[in-house]
Design goal:
about 5% helix, 2 helices, globular, SH3 type barrels, mainly beta, four-stranded antiparallel β-sheet, seven-stranded antiparallel β-sheet
Amino acid sequence: MALTYKRPTTPTRRHTALVINTEVSRSKPLKSLMKSLPYKAGRNFSGKLVVRHRGGRGKRQYRDIDFLRDNHNVPGVVVSIEYDPNRTSFIALVNYKDGDKRYILAPDGLKVGDEVISGDKAPIRVGNALPLKNIPSAQFVHNIELIAGKGGVLVRTAGSAAQIQGGDKGYIQLRMPSGEIRLIKELCYATIGVIGNLDHKNEKLGKAGRKRHMGIKPTVRGTAQSGGKHPHGDGQGKSGRHGPGGPAKDPWGNRIGTRTRKNKTTNKYIIKRRSTVRGNKFKSFKTII
């Protein structure tokens, strides 16, 4: 996998860098694992706009991904590596020996013809799913469960992985991609390896039209708007509201840049907070190991 650059015949092509999908198979996706994806364009059940800058997306269908990996102790063979328009990572179609067919997230290094398996006694190999207690320290994992048997919810984007740092008393310590160190129960499943499509972060779309096809509409700065539409408008200060400035606010007048985490019941599982953009670090919580 690598990036491709266009011949700079136009300003658009000059600044375009796209991933060459050399790993992706030419086969069509399996229809039995696809379903229609209702697109709300940022509106809720009553038609009210709740998420701005959404709309005008190209047609797509949802691929049913096996985040649970509950087909234990049944080996499967990777038939194809496919592109999924609903996520940044590639997906792999696996044919199991019992006749079942499922899509899984494709880790880096997984190829067509490789064998994958999930279960307590699965070998430590890329693409295999095991309980965290059976995975040795320093291994990189993805698709991690927070509640055993509920399916993986953590570390599912392209190029990401969490590293196991040991554990005790029924918990495993993991270093997340954000730098946060937290505890997860040892019975939760995780998949070995780093998620593929590593060059996704280096892509440059090059033109606004490509972004519109993804369903993202243009975003206008608050300072470029009028005062009746945004608190930053009317040019009366660079730091926020009308007049001499003030704290940065959203279009509805609420302060932005504040912490949004309110779930205090899980603070005991977080050993070290992730670092903020400015380099400040939150206080570490006492471990229960």
